[in-house]
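ok so I'm stuck.
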Amino acid sequence: MYFHPTATHRAAAQVGLRHIAGPIFLDFEGIDGLKWPDRIALAKKWPASAAEIGGPFIPLYFMPHSTYTDSPEHLTEVAALGKSMGARVHLHVSETQMENEDVNTRFGKTPTEILRDTKILDLPTVYGHGVHLSDSDIEISLARGASVAHCPGSNLKLNSGIADIMKYKAAGLKVGLGTDGCSSSNDLDMWPVLRLAAHLVSLNHGAKSVDTSSIVRSATIESAEALGLGDRVGSIEVGKEADLIAIDLSALHLTPVHDVFALLVYAVGRSDVSDVWVAGNRVVRNRALSHVDTADLRARVEKRVEALDSLK
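replied:
not stuck anymore, here's the structure
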């Protein structure tokens, strides 16, 4: 989610990433300079834009920011357009208690109830965060097939709260894992996310309640299913696309291999990943990026930062 989806998606496709992007919707003009009619126009053109860019397959997504930055009228418009185009939806939902209180003060409803009433939940929807879902919210979400993207690192950094993913899963909600953006999850590293998710289950329900295989499933197949990609990726099966990583098990901190799921959740880190394939394309080879000139990239980033510094 967020601004300039065409540019970010083009960059991701150029380096071989499977990057789910889509037009963002806000009531107001953001830093992208787009007004509401411009956002609707971008959404209508997005399938053609994404097809022109190419890259690994992604579903069509619309990304209204939230129920506190998109009016019910605008969300209804997004839902109708999304239904006509076969889109899925991703947006922030109940990330903080303050958000819930603000939305309730303004509209007399929870964010989830607004999504139901504006028909956003008639489309396959992924909640960013979903930290503070009421029992009623969980029931509504389950009935409409919504999923939760749990971002424990971001939630802890921003003091947003702790999502009770065991409660969500017990109710039948699908829970995937994510990092959130780099402003609240600086290095976008998924390995600490697995570890934090497990630790927070332990904190909420006791150490014996932690099921590391469930945590790994949330990071893989359940995330894929939540995103509408479960028939393509998320598990190693004949006929699926090869989104794979190879882990170097020779490091002393990974020796011996006893419980594979515990190893993945509590011991493996990004430095242990030696190779990565996306749709069968090897994008990391022997710990080196295959399609990125890192020296050139670093130089261009530093130049851009210098330009930003001049604005202070």
